[in-house]
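--- STAGE predict ---
source: upstream dedup step, 1 unique chain passed
mode: sequence only
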Amino acid sequence: MRRSIIITCLLAVVSRAVAQTPAVSINWDKTTFISKTTPTLQVVYNPMLRTHSPIHDGTFNALKSLSADYVRYVPWFPYVRAAVVEVKAPTANETFWDFQYADTVMRDLMAATAGHSVVINFSTIPVWMFKTDKPVEVAADADAINWKYNQGKQLRDTTGKEVAAYFARLLSWYTKGGFTDELGKYHKSGFYYKIPYWEVLNEPDLEHAISPKMYTKMYDVIVAEMKKVLPTTKFIGISVAHETNPDWFEFFLNPANHAKGISLEGISYHFYGRPSVVGQPIESYQYSFFDQADGFLDRVRYIENIRKRLASHTFTTINEIGNILEDHDYKGIIPTAYWNLSGAMYAYIYLELTKLGIDVAGESQLVGYPTQFPDVSMMNWKTSKPNARYWVLKLLKDNLGPGDKLVATTVGTPEVSAQAFNTSTGKKLLLINKTNTEKQLDLPVTASGAKINYVDTTTGDDPVAQYTLSGHNITLKPFAVSIIEIK
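--- STAGE serialize ---
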């Protein structure tokens, strides 16, 4: 009798344990949304992308292997000679166009993305086009960094035509084989790239502290001039760092605030999750990052309401999604699990942006390294291997994308995000563990024998791993991003 009681109690404990395991429920016949969201990344110029870099080959091989569309490329101001191709103002007798540093990485980028769309953003206006207290010096060393280059708040040519002519010539260099300079001299490049998208400036709310009104005026003049060079190119505007100011969206997206003939084609903005306080331990990063992600997603909904009200035909690319631990020069030790946490946050934001109908979700960025935002890197700068952030993106890109049907999905715990998709290659279930602990889930019985593709804290810098599920219970490792192929 006593043995019978013990067995009965044990069975009751096991039964309760099973009952307490959160379950995933899927209704494959109920489509809730059709995705139009492309997962992709941005590439930001820095010396690690140049041919002399020890990670050059590994980086561009990784970019090519990704086969992503809407790859955003941004040469930017700290590396002046690669970002600015006319570092001195022309004189009555001489111009100073110099593409030697810009061309090398541009050439490698276009080769690695051949057959796929790109978004180009030479984001830096030559500082001599602004009114400054004194001339800004530019070092001869192309790898020298200059965080103080972007000076001035007022253009010397307030019409914006000087800036517009500069960007039109730059576009012509890369798409028309060359251009004619200010003195009537022709400069031959030999480049005839297809550039389907061009983004006008980068984070103007930070760089030169440009107002929405001034930016809109500059955008109109720049786009009008660049359209003369390549009428088929679509232009993306705003590109703000802080999406918290609705004035940017209310003003820019209102057609009444634009010059005649300017069509609003696309907008962009950015998001980075950060520690809540300086020195916050990684053990609590997950709470800060995912709480901030949810706040950002609320703002996306608000911005989408503005866009739909004022310019519903425009597309949206959120093309910088990542995490920053401290400014640009993080000197701390980055724990291995951080890369998985950051990858899981990107996967979560990508999933939620898919539900909101955002067109492009771009992870930031391909290469960072100490002194240059090491915390946003998708490459291990020590080994030339992609890290977990890259592999999460590749996992998503290889399995999900526009045209997929999101179906009704529920999960019994808020610590895991779950979404099932009917895709052109079969039924798939995306699972994201948002915590630094293992999580068990009961899956539908149809998941038994399914192939699991995953990135978690056990995979490190290795590619997406696989195994076959035995039964229909799954254990997700900390910060795991998994896609289950259900037969």
